[in-house]
Amino acid sequence: MEIAVVGSEEFVVGFRLAGIRKVYGVEPDKLQETILQLLEEKSVGILAVHSKDIERLPQPLRDRMMASVDPVVIPVGEEEGDMRDKIRRAMGIDLYKTK
To answer: Is the dihedral of CA 3, 12, 59, 38 positive or negative?
Structure first.
């Protein structure tokens, strides 16, 4: 399973530098189309999308993304919540659990 990242060029540049192979810098008018394609791609296990971009999508697509298990959609942004919950949702285990 691979990690995919989709968003503006400014958003994805750091992921590209970090070595993520499936990085899609797209214009706002191509965002929805690209996300729909990635949701269907079997090799993608985690899909990272900027939280501001998610807010711009139609509600049915947002609901589908947040309910998706394969791939798990991770909203990334300054205002997002606990990273522990994101990791647990993505991997299915709690890496921080001590007992």
So the answer is: negative
Tokens of 50: 């900027």
Say how far apart CA 25 and CA 85 lie, in whole Å: 26
- Domain 2-91 class in CATH: alpha beta
Which two three-digit tokens encode residue 75? Answer: 């909203």
Alpha carbon separation from 57 to 7, 94, 96 (Å, rounded): 12, 30, 32
Helices 28-40 and 59-67 pack at an angle, to 10 degrees, of 40
The answer to whether the Cα torsion of 9, 10, 12, 14 is positive or negative is positive
In this prediction, residue 79 carries a pLDDT of 55
Annotated domain spans of the chain: 2-91
Question: For the whole prediction, is pTM greater than 0.70?
Answer: yes
Q: pLDDT per residue over 2-18, tens digit each?
A: 999 999 999 999 889 98
